[in-house]
Amino acid sequence: MDARQLQYFLAIVEHGGFSKAAAALHVAQPSLSQAMANLEADLGVSLFHRMGRGVVLSEAGAELLEPSRRVLRDLAAVRERAAALTGLGSGTVEVATMPSPGIEPMATLIHRFAQLHPDVTISTRAAFTPEETVELVRSGACELGLLGADKPVTAPGIDMLPVEEQPFVVVGAADGPFADGAVLHPQDLAGHKLIASRTGSLMRSIVDDITARGGDTEIVAVVDHRTSILPLVLTGVGVAVLPAAWTRLARRCGLAVASLVPTAHLHVAMISLPAHLTPGARAFLELTRSLAERRARTPST
User: Fold this and answer.
1) Are residues 24 and 10 in contact, defined by beta-carbon separation less than 8 angstroms?
2) What is the pTM of this model?
3) 256-260 and 265-272 strand pairing
4) Do residues 101 and 246 lie in contact, with contact meaning Cβ atoms separated by under 8 Å?
5) Residue 48 phi/psi, 5° resolution?
6) Which one-letter DSSP state was computed for residue 157?
7) From start to end of the chain, where are the E strands?
8) Dihedrals phi, psi of 72, to nearest 5 degrees
9) What pLDDT is recorded for position 287?
């Protein structure tokens, strides 16, 4: 067994088949197939079930998925440590992130990290629930995870670093129903059209609470992708309730942002496994810790 075989194994899983994995790895498919045959013979188990032109991960393959990711990550840590000894900082830090924390504090973290470690790449992977973020970290698909939830998240075997609590705000067109910097109560949104995410998110629960109060308030659009919300507000479709992470971007787009009182808070945390972190991931985690401590001293209002 060697690292190349494990890399090939994970690529087949990641890309859903031999042909796509071979193309992504820039190797001939027969070479990839032979490497997998040698690995299966060495391990004494079948890693995939061949079904026509496709493959399905076997039970044994599923069991070996997480250890394989750990082995390759540990090897990457060795290479990065050796590079650091020669004054070379390189590599990639993989971070799973939910949409709103992916706007902020992720933007601030990447900006600062790039200044400190310009040769290290930050690769983010989309996750849409706290559970999905935890699973990406637990499985080894990502080293770190940035999540947001209606209350602090706990998960066995996962380290949680609380970063900040983001209040929710209301975003509308500059010539819309409220001025930038205004303070609104839920009843002030009566009669307005709201843009909402799908049922299950904290954002949607706040919107549902507003519409339940009556006053002809209605949901005019439901979107899966949070990146669609600001363009819809800009075109005058309606107003949106968003975590404060979106405030700076919304104002740069020329939109008005109002405080919502009372409001829930999005609890943002960075998660990681206690071990198996590359030097780059440790540095990113420590940078996050410093940001959390600084924001705790000067909370936003």
Assistant:
1) no
2) 0.69
3) unpaired
4) no
5) -135, 155
6) T
7) 48-51, 54-57, 91-97, 120-126, 144-149, 159-172, 183-184, 193-197, 218-223, 239-243, 256-260, 265-272
8) -65, -35
9) 94
